[in-house]
């Protein structure tokens, strides 16, 4: 009996370890360094990437695969201290002049001020759908999980599993939705001192450089896209493919938006003096 218990425990240990490995992925297999002249580094046997910014250049990486719908999770630890003027970003982006894009951008700050999460959705080359939030924790002290879920009916943005934004497919009402162009995931760090911190009032302090952000545990449950063919055509997809917000998630979303949203384009009547974008009438 003791031997059976040991063997059972060993099997569970192996299974659990394989699940962790599957979640963590490996950056050597999953991504390519795009730019940065050595400022982007893959470390810890492919389990960690650091992206750095100095006065000469930022850095970034992109996924090897293209996707048409999926759920994407990444753990980030953001630039500590005085990061004013810097932007660390995680986003999906297609190619061409009428591109689609889904953005999570983390705007740096003066030491002690809260980080701002800047979100946007582009369809057919048009954005102007910004929503901004404060984070309710210090994102520089530890890793936190940031997620983009993109399926035929919804775009959902999450922080540690808590939804912060929803963008619904409202094509039946004439609102374009990103569903026809494949996208890669990108991560970058760059200088945006002209707008990132307090609208550009606070500039980058280059004596603090290099500014470094940390990425780990990239996970994608997604339909890969290659030569015009989706990997999901002849196979079943996961629950993410039709996922919507349930009542609990809707309450979580409302909590974030009531307490931590600091800008919503759908309430900016000064900016949209000729009328709010059409989808705003469906956003409560």
From TrEMBL:
Residue span(s) of domain GH16: 21-215
Q: Which family does it belong to?
A: Belongs to the glycosyl hydrolase 16 family.
Keyword Hydrolase carried by entry: yes
Which keywords does UniProt give here?
Apoplast, Cell wall, Cell wall biogenesis/degradation, Disulfide bond, Glycoprotein, Glycosidase, Hydrolase, Secreted, Signal, Transferase
Q: Which residues carry a glycan?
A: 109
**Lineage summary:** Eukaryota, Viridiplantae, Streptophyta, Embryophyta, Tracheophyta
Keyword NADP listed? The answer is no
EC nos: 2.4.1.207
**Gene Ontology cellular component annotations, sorted alphabetically:** apoplast
Q: Which coarse location class describes where this protein primarily resides?
A: secreted
Q: Name one GO biological process term.
A: xyloglucan metabolic process
Gene3D superfamilies, sorted: 2.60.120.200
> SUPFAM superfamilies, alphabetically?
Concanavalin A-like lectins/glucanases (SSF49899)
- Post-translational note: Contains at least one intrachain disulfide bond essential for its enzymatic activity.
**Active-site annotation:** 101, 105
As for subcellular location, the record says: Secreted, Cell wall; Secreted, Extracellular space, Apoplast
From the Swiss-Prot or TrEMBL record, give the protein name. Answer: Xyloglucan endotransglucosylase/hydrolase
Task: Give the protein's biological function.
Answer: Catalyzes xyloglucan endohydrolysis (XEH) and/or endotransglycosylation (XET). Cleaves and religates xyloglucan polymers, an essential constituent of the primary cell wall, and thereby participates in cell wall construction of growing tissues.
**Per its UniProt entry, what is the enzyme's top EC class, as one word?**
transferase
A GO molecular function annotation here is:
xyloglucan:xyloglucosyl transferase activity
Matches recorded under InterPro entries: Beta-glucanase-like, Beta-glucanase/XTH, Beta_glucanase, ConA-like_dom_sf, GH16_AS, XET_C, XTH
Question: Which chain regions cross the lipid bilayer?
Answer: none
């Amino acid at each position: 009996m003791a031997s059976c218990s040991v063997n059972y425990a060993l099997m569970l240990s192996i299974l659990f370890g394989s699940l962790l490995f599957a979640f963590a992925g490996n950056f050597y297999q999953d991504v390519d360094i795009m730019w940065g002249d050595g400022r982007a580094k893959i470390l810890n046997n492919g389990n960690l990437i650091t992206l750095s910014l100095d006065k000469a250049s930022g850095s970034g990486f992109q996924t090897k695969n293209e996707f048409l719908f999926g759920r994407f999770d990444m753990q980030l630890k953001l630039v500590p201290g005085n990061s004013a003027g810097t932007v660390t970003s995680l986003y999906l982006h297609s190619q061409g002049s009428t591109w689609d894009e889904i953005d999570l951008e983390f705007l740096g700050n003066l030491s002690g001020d809260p980080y701002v999460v800047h979100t946007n959705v582009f369809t057919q080359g048009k954005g102007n759908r910004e929503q901004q939030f404060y984070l309710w924790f210090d994102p520089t002290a530890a890793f936190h999980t940031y997620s983009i879920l993109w399926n035929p009916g919804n775009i959902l943005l999450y922080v540690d599993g808590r939804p912060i934004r929803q963008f619904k497919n409202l094509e039946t009402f004439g609102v374009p939705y990103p569903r026809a162009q494949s996208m890669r995931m990108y991560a970058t760090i760059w200088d945006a001192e002209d707008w990132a911190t307090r609208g550009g009032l606070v500039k980058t302090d280059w004596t603090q450089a290099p500014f470094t952000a940390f990425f780990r545990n990239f996970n994608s449950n997604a339909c890969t896209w290659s030569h015009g063919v989706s990997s999901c055509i002849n196979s079943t997809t996961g629950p993410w493919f039709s996922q919507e917000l349930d009542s609990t998630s809707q309450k979580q979303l409302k909590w974030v938006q009531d307490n931590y949203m600091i800008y919503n384009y759908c309430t900016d009547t000064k900016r949209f003096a000729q009328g709010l974008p059409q989808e705003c009438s469906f956003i409560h």
